[in-house]
Amino acid sequence: MIRFNSDYLEGAHPRILERLMETNLAQTPGYGEDRFCEQARSTIRRLCDAPEADVQFLVGGTQANLTVLAAALLPYQGVISADSGHIAVHETGAIEATGHKVIALPCRDGKLEAGQVSEYCRKHFADESHEHMVMPAAVYLSCPTEVGTLYSREELSQLRAVCDRWNLTLYLDGARLGYGLAAPGNTLDLPFLARTCDAFTIGGTKQGMLFGEAVVIRSERLKQNFRYLIKQKGGMLAKGRLLGIQFEEMLKDGLYMELSRQAIVLAMQLKAAFIDLKVPFLVDSPTNQQFPILPNVVLPMLRDKYSYATIEAVDEAHTCVRFCTSWATRQMDVDRLIADLHVLLRKQ
Q1: Cα–Cα distance between 299 and 334 in angstroms, integer?
Q2: Suppose 145 and one of 97, 110, 259, 335 were both cysteines; which one would form an S-S bond, judging by CB atoms 3.0 to 4.6 Å apart?
């Protein structure tokens, strides 16, 4: 079985494993207060051109999301998200479990628009009974989004302005950030994100590490006592040096972006094959996630050799599925898939 259903199916890049072995018997303080984590923090601050940023390492994306939003929100406040946003769909109510409502807004192509966020806030505070409703106090984005789309600099700047107007915390989930930064047409970079967002994450779990997410915090309010929340929300690793070592190695010599670009090259090959076969897409994604709409009749035959994620039925005869490349996807596997797609789809 050749797996294309997600981008965290393999272990870790060999350099990560080698570095972990080299440092295996080193004795360090725990909980991310070791020299490896400090070096990784310095590297991230430099790459973000943000010497004042706080950088904390958490074990996973869900823990990062709920910890940042727990820091951002008071008990009566909620977070605005696209209705397809990860926190609204795929985190088993983790945010709600902290006592905060996810305010899901319908979105085209998985992206929140500044205008709709502003209009939601305007209507909320214009309602004479607004004190009886959950107050919007944060905006959650992901880049890439759940459907592989990207925010531009202009779109993110407009959302920043809306957050400033309505006193909202702007948080960007970067679990797949490298794949977004490496995508054709991307206009974002780490310094821009550090200037624009109150907090954002740099993903490791889906980008060649065994596990781990780096939270970059610009907001002085969010920085205060943040480590208390990391511990409380289950995101603090006792052997925290394992996170620092991985990020330090992944960000050395451009490895993070090299692996991201590799995944994008293969995804674009797959996308080109679907286009050549006249296969429509649910959304035009420039990232490692591709969402073709395939005839139902070919899906069982594909399942014999390949795994993919089923997204939604489009009509009685067609289904949107997701094929996902990763840092570890092999050229030969993409070639095999493309060859089989040509055989199967040209028969239809």
Answers
A1: 17
A2: 110
**What pLDDT is attached to residue 137?**
98
- Average pLDDT over the chain reads 97
Asked if residue 144 has a cis previous peptide bond (ω within 30° of 0), the answer is yes
Whole-angstrom CA distances from 150 to 34, 154, 224, 284 are 35, 11, 30, 10
* Percent of the chain whose predicted confidence (pLDDT) is above 70: 99
pLDDT of residue 90: 93
Q: What are phi and psi of 207, to 5 degrees?
A: -125, 25
Separation between Cα atoms, residue 163 and residue 177, nearest integer Å: 22
Residue 108: band (very low, low, confident or very high) from pLDDT cuts 50, 70, 90: confident
Residue 312 exposed, middle or buried by CB count within 10 Å (0-12, 13-18, 19+):
exposed
Q: Strand pairing partners for 97?
A: none
pLDDT at 18 over 80: yes
Q: What is the dihedral of CA 94, 193, 256, 19, to 10 degrees?
A: -70
Query: Whole-structure pTM over 0.90, yes or no?
Result: yes
Dist CA 238 CA 229 (whole Å): 15
Phi and psi, residue 168, nearest 5°: -110, 145
335-340, long-range: CB < 8 A, 24+ apart: 336/2, 336/305, 337/2, 337/4, 337/270, 337/306, 338/269, 338/270, 338/273, 340/302, 340/305, 340/306
Which H or E element spans position 45?
Answer: helix 35-48
The span from the CA of 267 to the CA of 333, in Å, is: 12
Q: Tell me the one-letter amino acid at 193.
A: L
Q: What is the pLDDT of residue 21?
A: 98
166 touches 118 (CB < 8 A): yes
Of the candidates 233, 247, 283, the residue with the CA atom closest to the CA atom of residue 91 = 233
One DSSP character per residue, 87-144 reads HHHSSTTHHHHTT--EEEE--GGG---HHHHHHHHHHHHHSTTGGGSPEEEEEEEESS
